[in-house]
Amino acid sequence: MGGEKVAGILFGLAVSVALLLTGCGGGDGAQPAATEPPPEETPAEPAGEFAIVAGDPGDFDFDLPASVPAGEYEFSLRNESEQPHHAQIFRLEDGVSFEEFEDALLSDAEPGTDFPQAAREMVAGPPTGVLRITSPGEEGPGRGELESGVHAVVCFVSDIRGTGRRHYALGMLAELEVT
Length: 179
Known about the structure:
Layout: H1 3-22, E1 48-54, E2 62-63, E3 67-68, E4 71-79, E5 85-91, H2 98-106, H3 117-120, E6 128-134, E7 139-146, E8 149-154, E9 173-178
Parallel strand pairs: 1-4, 3-9
Antiparallel strand pairs: 1-2, 4-7, 5-6, 5-8, 8-9
């Protein structure tokens, strides 16, 4: 066989293989699964949104709804204070009241204390909310799912005025009921 004939056969074979691999060879037109792009995942639409306001200048408190329905949320923390804050939302274990959690959290609220073990044991899973620190005058975003139950909103940032106490020990601790 001449070189041109061999080249023609090889070319024809290559085209046939390519057509078979791409599904264009007269079959059902489906491409092999390996070449299909994965379906795009779109995040679930949030059930709602709500804002948490971190105290007026000089105050250590949260302003937020008393209750919200369970679901996916977009949160915002508007910092109207003179200090940085965040808002971690913890679902409490079934049967644990907000008052019990507050007592356990404040039982060891000395300078440098982060999250007393007794309070940590009352929490059901990781926090949600606005977990990053938000500077004065700033608004910080957050997103997460809130399950039914009693929740505690806590700011663990340390007081920058020199007391070293966590903001929750100064009043930045609030109850949120999720129905």
